[in-house]
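Ticket #4471: structure export looks truncated?
Reporter: QA, pipeline team
Priority: medium

Steps to reproduce: submit the single chain below to the structure queue and open the exported record.
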Amino acid sequence: MEGWDPNTKSTLTQIPLLTTKAGPRDGAAWTQRLKEEYRALIAYTQMNKSNDNDWFRISAANPEGTRWTGKCWYVHNLLNPRFGIAHALCLGLAPWLAAEIPILVDSGMIKHKDDATASNES
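Actual output as written to the record:
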């Protein structure tokens, strides 16, 4: 964690650590790992909501927990772009969104649906 900003360190220390090393083929150990994953995601989501920083939804797409679906969003220029994601990597996705989305919107590569409607009406 050396070199990370204090907010990132604080966030990480509040998310429960995963202790079970298991994959989907490991039976009961995988079930335990999946429970740990859910606990971490729930803690992170609750922490974000309490800090008015709610920016993603994620859920298992199958009972085995091997497929995940979700959405994430980012507010730029008071517009709210939404994106579908296969698996939210909470700490990796947020900094990427903050760095890349403004550039993509400002360059015109991503357009808000309201902007597209307004340009079609003119």
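Status: closed, not a bug. The export was complete when the record was re-opened. Leaving a note from the reviewer for reference: The two ends are 51 Å apart (CA to CA).
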